[in-house]
Amino acid sequence: MKLLPILASFSKKDWHWLQKFVNSPIYNQHSAVIRLFEFFRKRPLDSEKQYSSDFLHKKLFPEAPFDTAKTHHTANYLLRSTEDFLAWDEWWQDEPERQRYLLQACRHRGLDRHFAETLQKLGHNIEQQPLRDADLYRFRYRLAFESYQHSIQSEGHSAAEHLQPFSDWHDLSFVAEKLKNACGIYSHKRLLHTELDLGLLPAVLEFVRARPALLEHTAVAVYFHGYHALSEPNEDAHFFALKNLLESAASKFTLSELRAVYLLAVNFCIHRINLRQENYLREIFDLYKNGLELSVFIENSQISRFTYTNIALTAFRLREFEWAHGFLLNYRDKLPETQRQGAFAFNLARYHCERGDYTQAMPLLLEMDFDDVLHNLTAKAMLAKMYWETSEINALENLLTSFSVYLRRKRQVSDQLRTGYQNFIRFVRRLQAMPPGKKAARAALREEIANTALVAEKDWLLRML
Hints:
The protein is an all-alpha fold. The chain has helices at about 5-10, 10-20, 30-40, 55-60, 70-95, 95-110, 110-130, 135-155, 160-190, 200-210, 220-230, 235-250, 255-275, 280-295, 305-315, 320-330, 335-355, 360-365, 375-390, 395-410, 415-435, 440-450, 460-465.
């Protein structure tokens, strides 16, 4: 029954308003629908099997002979009323859109004075609120469309004063939205390794280049430079142009849209860091700090363990230990509850390890069974490094053996990661077996490690040599 999953998603507040909805003759004129609503409201909705047509018919029409069609129609009417409620609830929460529909109704009914007052009120409200994102430009275009249509209807022809704003807002709305969507599509395209036809995007990019005044609009500028940063990840100019726009975007974008822009900039930096351009560590660290101040990395009151770990790792690599320790403590309680202890212990262990405090790092790694494969791989590599540096050779050999078994058995480990860590184990054993004083052999091993494409903890191995 299509209705049950919808009702199962309802909060107490939703049930309260749906009750008013189905009891309103405007939306429902069937008393059986009200009875069916009350029946579901008082019962669990976790199993569809318990609500057969025969069962429901007896509850709704106890005196009438069984009629499958009648029961089906009643359930269908309730489904339609529920869907209408969901649409109404979304519409009701969007006051500007409600006012735009009022504007449209005034135009259709020829209520010129009311139309003018509503249009003026909407324009004033837009100017007063700070948002200047792609959604706002689309709304401005729709207002310009209403104004344009009203001028034709009331004057018999389109007044010239309405033509240019209508065309300009249409262009601006389309350009901003096309660039915004292009950023999202390109990000997914790169992840999925899929070729997609981006349609009019080349023409839109050329249109913006030919009209630099469009870049005075933050939404256009952000997504124009954002798209070029995505599609030209080895070029610097568009990234820095985007970074300079983030402060302006913070006051003009919704939090969810600002989050997407920050992630775009972060991913650009990650690409450059993976190319061993270490100067981008400071760039990404600045993005993380500013983003935390704006709460862009917090979604539904939580921070993901991957973001938490990436931020901490960046701080460790920059030796910003005091800041990193404060971050780990301050954001611990914002981690998802089921992952909180593991993510906190892992990053705290890494914090102690990076500072050379192995006596505090080791117990945290040995006592935890991390539920994330990547955390487990990193934790085992950290232990191996600490055993090597403290000359605990037996513990190191036992760990390398169990590490090799783990890599063979864990199917979730990607081929790239498996190869990288297998090479790490191989080179640690080569390092361990090398007699002291063999400068030529050490130089040869160092060159071999440097020239091997996939090696986990490559920097540490080279440093040990």
